[in-house]
Design a protein that fits this description.
Blueprint: E1 2-6, H1 10-21, E2 25-29, H2 32-41, E3 43-47, E4 52-54, E5 58-60, E6 71-74, H3 81-84, E7 97-100, H4 107-115, E8 121-126, E9 129-133, E10 136-139, E11 145-150, H5 157-168, E12 172-174, H6 179-200, H7 204-207, H8 211-230, H9 239-248, H10 257-263, H11 274-284, H12 289-309
Parallel strand pairs: 1-2, 1-6, 2-5, 3-10, 6-7, 11-12
Antiparallel strand pairs: 3-4, 8-11, 9-10
Helix pairs in contact: 6-8, 6-9, 6-10, 6-12, 8-11, 11-12
Length: 310
């Protein structure tokens, strides 16, 4: 398959490299020093999945140079999507499917607003990987996975082909029966855990045993579940308990990308996580005081980072 990967950081770089190693024609949309490194040295993977290098790499800052693709995997930060989405039309052919692998639940609707509903699916991923340096993705110890589905959950030959491609590339891939439930289940974890970590400036192991911080995270999780239900995505009855159990099993030193971004003074995905819960909850008439507290307390740091970035 011809696959265009939008973003060549930890997520896009890892999954794009795995698909390229499996023999697919993969091209990357990148920019700056990362683009230069991809063109000059290729893409290197290190970490828990072993070491690999792909060279040469087809990469560009202009979607028009990548040409129509069978699959477009969108792996940028959530705040970059609104500006980027209209440019992705250059990658569309008559049968292209666009799969976002972003955090949050709003990316499919935003892409559909720019590209039309037909090419757009919904998706998510789980991975701990980061750009160690331009052209070099390092994967930590969590087994990567992807999940995706059509917006209406209909059976999908195009997504089944993509699932098979991921599996053949050594990546766990699933088409869940309800993709919206899958998206909200992930948000139930990342929005509270990322926000509490960022607010406390502590690793998971430092705050999860503290009654105040843990209680705030649990209240936020229950709010996410309530907003999901109000918007038609009824999560499992024990979703919060299972998420807390997963939290307890995480490596003690774990932190989230949102936390690391804010601590480094970079713009974060706050608006797509706690901010989205507050915003979508208000639209659905669901009160979200814990998520609002988390969002509002982190917002000054977020605004400072945006101002610094210009």
């Amino acid at each position: 398959m011809r696959i265009a990967v939008i973003g060549a950081g930890g997520v896009g770089g890892y999954f794009g490299a795995r698909l390229a190693l499996a023999g697919h024609d993969v091209a990357f949309l990148a920019r700056g020093e990362n683009l230069r490194a991809l063109r000059e040295r290729g893409l290197s993977l290190t970490g828990a999945s072993g070491e690999a290098r792909i060279a040469p790499v087809r990469a560009s800052a202009d979607p028009r140079e990548l040409g129509p693709a069978d699959v477009v995997l969108v792996a940028v930060k959530s705040w970059q999507l609104a500006e980027l989405a209209p440019r992705l039309s250059a990658l569309l052919g008559p049968a292209t499917v666009v799969v976002p692998l972003l955090n949050g639940v709003e990316a499919p609707a935003l892409l559909a607003a720019s590209l039309g509903a037909e090419p757009v699916a919904a998706g998510l991923c789980g991975i701990v990987a980061y750009l160690a340096e331009p052209g070099h993705v390092h994967h930590e110890g969590v087994e990567p996975f992807v999940r995706f589905g059509e917006l209406d959950d209909r059976p999908s030959p195009r997504l089944e082909r993509l699932r098979e491609a991921f599996v053949a590339a050594g990546v766990r891939a699933e088409i869940p029966p309800d993709i919206q439930v899958a998206l909200w289940t992930k948000l139930l974890f990342i929005a509270p855990v990322s926000s509490v970590g960022a607010l406390t400036r502590a690793s998971v192991g430092e705050w999860r045993g503290l009654a105040g911080a843990r209680g705030l995270a649990e209240r936020a999780m229950r709010e996410v579940a309530a907003v999901a239900a109000a918007r038609g995505a009824a999560l499992a009855a024990d979703a919060v308990e299972r998420t807390l159990a997963f939290l307890d099993g995480m490596a003690p030193g774990a932190t989230s990308s949102l936390q690391r971004d804010l601590e480094a003074g970079r713009r974060s995905e706050l608006d797509a996580q706690a901010g989205a819960v507050v915003r979508l909850g208000a639209e659905a008439g669901v009160e979200t005081p814990a998520c609002r507290l988390l969002h509002d307390c982190l917002l000054p740091r977020e605004l400072r980072a945006r101002a610094a970035a210009g």
